[in-house]
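Hello, quick one for you while I still have it in my head. No rush at all, and the record is pasted right below.
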Amino acid sequence: MKYILSFICLISLQVSLSQQSSQALEKTIKKLSNKAINIATSNQDSAYYYFKQSIKVAAINKHWNYAMDNYFEIYNTAFYHNNFTKRQSTLFTIDSLYNSQQNYFNTLENSLKYKNHINFYYGFYYYRLNNYEAAKNRFQKIIDNTANADNSQLLKNKTFLSVAYSYVAKMNTDEGKYALSKALYDKNIRFLKTIDSTNNDLIYSNYNLLAEVLKKENKHKQSNSYFLKFLNYYDNKGGSNNIMSSCFNIAKNYIQLKKIDSAKFYLKKAKQYLDINHMYNVNYYKLYSEIYDNENNYEKALNELDKALDFYKKKATRSYKNNQYIAITNSDIGELHQKYDDPNKAINHYNIAINLFENDSIKSSINQINLLKTLKLKAITLNNLNNPIETINTVNYAISILDKLRPTFRYNDDKLFFIENAFPLFESGIEACFTLDSKSNNNTYIDQAFLYAEKSKSILLLEALLSSKATNYANIPKNIIEEGDVLKYKITTLEKKLNVNKTETLKEELTNLKLEHTNYLKRLESNYKNYFNLKYNSKGISLKKTQQLLSKKDMLISYFYGENAIYAFGITKNTKQLKRITLDYNFNDSIKLTYKMLSNPKSNLELLRKNLESLHDKIIAPINKLNQNLIIIADGLLNYIPFAALIDKKSNYLLEKHNISYINSATLLQQLQAKKSNNGKLLAFAPSFNNSKLLALPNNLKEAKDCADYFKGQVLSHDNATLQNFNTKSTNYSILHLATHAVFNDEAPEFSFLAFTIKNRQNGYLYTKDLYNLKLNANLVTLSACESGIGNLKRGEGLLSLARGFYFSGAQSISSTLWKINDASSAALMSDFYKNLSKGQPKDLALQQAKLTFVKQNKDNALSHPYYWSAFVISGNTEPLTSTHYWLWIIAGILLIVILGILLKKKNS
């Protein structure tokens, strides 16, 4: 209100000036304004005086646009001099003036310019305060207002639009949302090249910001390719700050690449432009600290960080993010102390950093992320100090922040990166619980450790399944659900087109669709709180509830593959145990070698058996009293191992005594317990590849027909085994059997595919991406195809395989393969598998018995090699496909016939 009153006072002054002609008036206003601009950098107080004189003249004559222009210049001057108080008061005055004279500004031809100016200043103001939510809202207003304006206004406001995109992307980068950031930078660069192709400053600025994202993604070579272009541009044009910033970024990448001499070269180049008071001195100190750290010179590394910290403290009044920088530097010092075995000093610096982050009144996302990182480091150090109780407290605090931040990540790549970085946190918690469990009789610590392990597993898959359930329980209107489905379908369609033909037009269209889908999800989660709460339910299943899922014959073995050890949880209906398996230096190589030998039918069987025995001793033998049914939650490289092929001390395969199934997490196992309608019908596909690049599968039709002998249903082969038929018919069947090719795409796992018959040039590939849009009712999906269970390995999420993709579609259980299988042996295995299923056997037992039959039949020939039988694995809900009650009816019928026969015989006699 006081700002409005100040304008009323201004209007009452110098009434005589209102008689001046419009031309003379403008001249007076501009003269005063120009005088202020000329001295703005050297004498801010005098500049403010002349700006205000200009404002008085404009206000008396109600030329509010000129008044506003001068306030913009006051704000710019205050920014130059780091005068925060003046900037803040000017911003509020600008807002007050605009609101009181909004009708006036709306009539101006360049009204959009004023809206954008105000939103920009507010956006930047909030950005500097680390209030990213408020800042994004302001910059988004610029984007919405300008992107939807007519072409004339778009051209006049193109710089505002580009800068708004850059700031939104930059904030997402700071928050670790790199996929979203890159999409926005790419969109911005395309926009500039189309609308403002001569504006090299903005174009190169976006390349520079894009390079920063790549640096944070640890893509250091690719990052430097952009930074070096940016540096070369400003070397030619001039601009000391830009030259220094690019030199520092290039040096940082070279340090990570262990090219220390190159890093020193660019630091020396940057040093030429540094004066003693420049804020970039801290960059110089910190990078030299990293160099000394690489050279194992602890004292010098610490000295450089101390200099950076002192510099921040001395310049405290000059930076609004100063507490953040001081906190981060303390965290860096703590990490250095930790590395060089001074944990107590490390804890002290971590605590300073934590207190500073906690004092952030708005709980900004960027400070919460930095707080999470510091808590992670503190937990590791506390474990090293053998302080498990405090470690657990720290881990629990960090996880509470993790749970709040997770819903803000929209792109799957960003979610994976976020969770992967949190992995050491979970390991610290599990390690602390193991320490306490081994020292006491209180085995509740196993329960706590199990919760930590569950927190780390299959986040994306669980979120997708919970999201699907949430839409059913949150009373979301059908048309709104369909809106999201249509957007997802359009995105998938475009991504497949881009995979073949990468045009700028398609890229732009895809980015727009993804941003639209992101906004759709935000609205959905905001308007339907039950949907949000169900989708992001972060509790995870407890160990006690997991035990309730198990039968007396079941044992669930859950692995957590850490940096320092593997932790194995052995859980039965009534018992629980936690084992720590120390990692040998060559353990990873041993697993890789074992997998390589398993997937090669010509590998040396004796050597393979030794490796399988060794692996059994390492990961199975420590667990006491194995039950008959083993449910394996693999982690890390263990995902590549078929546990049935492991060999015990009696030289027997685990297969011989145990039914083995797999699941991504106990929480997922719980989700898959929900009963689906089961019509017991089978749909089998046996495509032909006569005119394809893919090799023919001579036994796939026989396999499909053999499987169909045991269940009612349909076999689609040759020209009928098309993708179109799969899409239209698959939802009507409880059992899907695909005897086909699976092709794994190592570079782009979501473009791995299952092949169908290509007919009339129609698409014959079912990509992993397509599965996210399918809605199946399948109780069992069998992927009798090469490497259908293999994909990129992501920490916690497991193998990003085709098989996993079917869970997104709604499948309850999946039979898949771990390597390129033999066509003939798979046909024999599958025939017995389905025969056993038809008898009402659980899926894990049915597969075990089929394998045992195969091994027994081929014990004296080359087909006994585990390559031929151990590739098939079953995951998910292993309950029988058919009720065993029908056997009771058969027995009852036979008894009835026998009784009737006896009675008739007695009567006749």
User: Anything to note?
Assistant: Residues 504-527 form the longest helix (24 residues). Residues 676-878 form a domain with the Rossmann fold fold (CATH 3.40.50.1460). The chain is about 60% helix and 10% strand. Residues 136 and 168 are 6 Å apart (CA to CA).
